[in-house]
Amino acid sequence: MSLKICINGFKGRMGNAIAETAEQAGHEVTGQVDIGDDLNAALSKSDVVIDFSFHAATRAVFETAASLGKPIICGTTGHTQEERADLLKIAEAVPTVWAGNFSIGVNLLCYLTEKAAEILPLSYNAEIIEMHHRMKKDAPSGTALMLAESVLGPRNLSYDDLQHGREGVPGERGEREVGMHSLRGGDVVGDHTVIFSDIGERLELTHKASSRAIFSRGAVKAAEWTVGKAPGVYSIRDVLGLK
Ligand code: NAD
């Protein structure tokens, strides 16, 4: 099945990677939308929109897709919790796959992190470290937040337990804290490590991305998967069969 795909954020790093993957998979890129372009016109002649752009651009994408009844694949990160909750309501109107990371390896890392967080007691202190290229605009990464949720859920913790960096004299580490640390530099596509440390041992789970194709393949696969699906918000785990 060949799809007509509209890419929002077309001129960006991910926009380029998605166009290449989509064409290799036999789809047609019918919408090449970036800042200032007419999204409505481009999406009208497409079957689905794939958005990897900027957090402030997401609302217009979701509203346009919902009004045209077109499925949404969203990989954009950097939204606040409130923005996200608000956008999810709009997304319910059409089949939507929204994920902070579209790679199989990272989604498996989330699954393994959930298992570790469930099995290990709170005395195994959890810290999350991510590194990305120096052009990345948001922090922590969407993937680091997915990993944080994989720790918070099984341990009955909340977003208030996240500790974003440490400075000065923060005092002894509490058991409920989940440390979040963002490194930036060079051309790193995306590294993520979750550490569980107790007295005497430390478990580290790491994923390293070396090509954006791992995300664009997941996004194009999600676009194919939404064909014929009922409206609603789906996770990338539904698409990848990792549930
Ligand atoms: P980028 O800066 O290279 O590209 C973003 C593009 O979006 C730019 O061309 C920019 O002009 C465009 N853009 C900004 N505002 C726009 C608007 N209002 N309308 C249309 N286009 C607009 O960034 P990137 O590295 O390609 O990443 C894009 C997004 O995807 C980021 O939020 C990033 O964190 C996210 N990302 C997600 C995944 C994932 O698997 N979910 C993987 C990689 C990157």
Structure description:
- With 243 residues, the protein is an alpha/beta fold.
- The chain folds into two domains: 4-98 and 212-240, NAD(P)-binding Rossmann-like Domain (Rossmann fold); 104-209, Dihydrodipicolinate Reductase, domain 2.
- Helix content is 35%, strand content 25%.
- It has eight helices and eleven strands.
- The protein has helices at residues 13-24, 39-44, 58-68, 81-91, 104-119, 142-152, 213-226, 236-240, and strands at residues 4-8, 28-33, 48-51, 72-74, 95-98, 125-132, 162-164, 178-184, 190-198, 201-209, 232-234.
- The strands form two sheets. It has a six-stranded parallel β-sheet with strand order 2-1-3-4-5-11, sandwiched between helices.
- The longest helix is centred in the middle third of the chain and has 16 residues, at 104-119.
- The model has no long low-confidence stretch (mean pLDDT 96).
- The site of nicotinamide-adenine-dinucleotide (NAD) has 24 residues, from helix 1.
